[in-house]
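Me: I keep going back and forth on a fold encoding question. No explanation is needed for now; the record alone will do.

Assistant:
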Amino acid sequence: MSDAYKDHLGRPIIAVTGMGVITSLGQGVQDNWSALTSGTSGIHKITRFPTEGLSTKISGTVDFIELPAANAVERSYAMARETTLEALAQAGMSGDFNGPLFLAAPPIEPEWSARFELADRSGPSEKPGDAYNRFLAAMRERPDPVFHEAVMFGSISERLSDRFGTRGLPVTLSTACASGATAIQLGVEAIRQGRTDRALTVATDGSVSAEALIRFALLSALSTQNDPPEKASKPFTKDRDGFVIAEGAATLVLESLEAAVARGARVYGILKGCGEKADLFHRTRSSPDGGPAIATIRAALADAGIDEAGIGYINAHGTSTPENDKMEYLSMSAVFGEKLPSIPVSSNKSMIGHTLTAAGAVEAVFSLQTMLTGTLPPTINYQNPDPAIVLDVVPNVKRDSQVTGVLSNSFGFGGQNASLVMTAEPA
């Protein structure tokens, strides 16, 4: 391999040759990018299921394409399929993909309504009134293959593998809100290790449900500012009160730069570096001192072989929760120091909400678009700045600025931290 195709550590340079995305803003990279840069919000009132009695009644659900209303696996698969079709078309690939698949998918459980329905069909059990035991008994006594696949998130990768002709055992992972970035990291590592010339990295999440809202509400994680919905997500502001749960998917086609050039593919950007650190502080909370997040950002920069000066824009995790936004600010401050206020930092979640498992990949696509178009997407709803968080958040309106290096952060529940460094050019 020529040195022109190697990074600073002699590893293959990783190119992005195809992208696809779906969020509450629309289907496809161009529609999403147009809406995102115009400051449009995809957050709206929930109509898929009743919200009476719930403290949060808004979401960034994907309601504009035909998706099964009561089946999170089918919704997640359908979005992943569509973004993969777009990414492969953009990459100029047809036929079998002939490379590994790395999928980030939500750890889906059957809704309680489905559990009760299946249990009721099984008749009386040894423990009447114990819904969960009745459900398990029903699954043992009366197998239901259709239902079984509908609640197995591992089936998503198997179906994608069959549909697109990937090679080897498809990998399904779930590292909370860092999952999308982790899937990309696994694809990068597979190519760097010489196991393949290309990798398909997909992240999808269609798990918004009443039960999901209740669970996150019990953690005091969701915004309850329901009216108007589009104003609820307000990262880095003084009056932020929680994230807005959302759905979406994204696919990136990764190739070694050498392989991409050899087949005449367009290169949309370079996956320059990846960092990942675990946090043992709490099952759901991240360490408030930001230690693991700091280490994650530094690891990504070191892996990319660049210093802080090489980053011209940061795509923040920026969930709009009081604690997480503060922690992320402290982490970025520790790494970038006095330079941080001069580095544009914006949060896509102000418009699309938090797509959970899909977030890291969705935001990677938007980070690449930032470099491709010379446009920085805004952080909307930035009307009441938090005086303790001094950032240039590209407030409310997009900005024209050509950047060649982007850091994208994904800091998940339970301290699952991942950061990606992307550049416009290999050098």
In short: The longest helix spans residues 72-91.
